[in-house]
Here is the input.
Amino acid sequence: MNKVLVILFICTSFACSGSKAAIQTSQASVVPQQEEISIERDSLRPNIPIEEKAPEITIEKTIPKEENKENVQELDSIQEQLKIIDKEEIKPETVAFDHTPWDIMLSKYVSNDGKINYKAFKQNRTTFRAYLKALEKNTPKESWSKQDKLAYWMNVYNAFTIKLIIDNYPVKSIKDIKEPWDLRFFKLKDKWYTLNDVEHKILRKMNDPRIHFGINCASYSCPPLLNKAFTAKNVDQELDRLAVRFINDPKRNAITENNIAISKIFLWFAKDFKKQGSLISFLNKYSKIKIKSNAKKSYKKYNWTLNE
Here is the structure.
């Protein structure tokens, strides 16, 4: 019995010591492995600032599907078209000649009934001369439209008539100036002109009798000077309006069905007004009173007093 107990004690001691050894061996093998893994992870982490890591984490490139590619291309095309439209909308309209400075001066120094403040033009010669200089440098080209040319030459006639007056001011009448319409006093490009050159050799040859209502001879009996500049856009409309105003002005023309006492302009330039029929047929285009074809005709005395 005692022998058996001794044997059991010895076996138990060996088993316990073996188990402790195994545990120690296991712990010894586990700890070095953990250290090795920790070192390996540290060696893979690059030594860079945090902000430089962000792109590596957040950037993810994806290839769009075929149908998405078409949508992207269509969107790009629409955006390009919108850019073109925007540019066209803000692009200033091109004009053959800019008469804006003249328009501003006329609105300031000419009344609605055509009276001209020649003193104001004379006091503001710097601005006036700048416009005349622009007319001199930019004469009509072949590419200009008929309306651009018509507006240019009518503005030329009116502007240089005013220049003639203020160069000789004060005067009571344009006829106080020696040969006012044959005086070669202004230059356009390399050519010198008279007012008669502009009226008879250029404007009348454009075959539009309405020009006689748009050019002003600085006199009371002339058609009143328009207080705005002629432009390619407004020239047709304004000439029609001026024709109606002048023909129906009782101070310059007295019209009834059977009798007309009209301006001598219709006598001096009768050929222009008869190109498409009789003088009366022309007048009836603009007259508020229908004139009979056999109406008696006479001409009013012309008043050459300065229109100021």
